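User: Please predict the structure of the protein below. I'd like the answer in structure-token form so I can feed it into my own downstream comparison script.

Assistant: Understood. Taking the following sequence of 216 residues as input:
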Amino acid sequence: MFHSATVRHVDIKLDNLDRVQTYHLMTQAIVPRPIAWVLSDNGPGATGLDRWNLAPFSYFNGVSSNPAQLMFSIGHGMDAREVKDTYVNLRARPQFVLHIPTVPEAANVVASARPLPHGEGEVSALDLDVAWPPEWSVPRLATSKLAMACTVDQMVDVVAGLQQIMVIAHVTDLWVDDDVTVQDAEGNARIDPVSLDPLARLGGGLYAAIGAPFKP
């Protein structure tokens, strides 16, 4: 004899919800999410460290390994008329640096998401230090354990009207702190996730550490 289990799920029809409601449910359902901490160029009109914009994005992941590509999605806030500086910068200057933020950097990640007037940079506002990679037009955060040199390949309108833009970028270089690299049994370099201690995004303003890795 077959027994049917008691159905205990709630069926939420996302197409019947408004944009804000859907956003909150999606960001609570797709967890944990890696965070792309993107440093882009505000342009020559800004001076000193104000030239560098820094913003986090958690709709982010890899796309392919050959070529090495990643994507992140720029949402323009709850007000669709709000165009984010990262979008403006990458349209004009396609090179950028993407950092994988760590748990100790959580407060700065949150602070860098707060809006500043265009031309004022989060690197300056948060008093962060930068280092200049060779042959790259954009600096990286000096204390970053893992950063990537990226160039925009495509910017795709996911939703018309500048509400959501997907950035697909080519990764040319990885800059990895020696403290988070290890050698495997074959002598190949590996990035140790425990030493890296990456910050993960949850929903509702919550963040998380990865915990203890395991192999099932």
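That's the full token string. The mean pLDDT is 91.
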